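Progress report, Aim 2. The chain analyzed during this reporting quarter is listed below.
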Amino acid sequence: MGYTIEKLAPDNYYKCGNIWDMNKNPKRTKKWHDELISGNRITFVYVENDEYIGEGSLVLVSGDLGCTIENERIYLSRMVVKPEYRNRGIGGVLLDYLTEYAKSLGYKEMSLGVDIDSIGARWLYEKKGFTSIFRMGEDEGGKFVKLLKTL
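Predicted structure tokens for the chain:
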């Protein structure tokens, strides 16, 4: 079955609601939409048969300490695949695409955050080279680790 990876236009942002529950945290959903409109967030979607299956974003400037460094480090945000499509390699395909895109923009490093209890996601990130831990912490979502990869 064929797929495409498409850059998400702000007008299509709410179509991603079929991938993840946008109503769960409307304030965060709006923040990410506003970042997409401003150009600070670049989002790509994995599409099969005209259906959004996965999503991943790159954030140029983050307010999260150390996650971005202007023109040097970019932040990977919102890597998510619809639950019924997981474990098919889609996350890896999206991650590779986002990594190459970040390189094409001239970035030297990519950072990301992952929940400690997201074993599958952590395994994928480490497999793809995110092996340096630069911070651990806890927020409303639980314990997390911030990982770094040289591009």
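The two ends are 30 Å apart (CA to CA). The chain has one domain: 4-111. These observations will guide the mutagenesis work planned for the next reporting period.
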